Amino acid sequence: MSKNATTPSSPPAAAGMDGILAERMAEGGGALCNDENGLCLGSRGDIDTSQSGCYTAIAKLASQLDNTVDGQGTKNNNNNGEMPLVTIQTEKAALLVKEYGGRTVVFRVPTEVNVNGQQCGSELVMNGELDNLNEGV
Question: Most CB within 10 Å of its CB: which of 11, 71, 85, 133?
Answer without folding.
Answer: 133
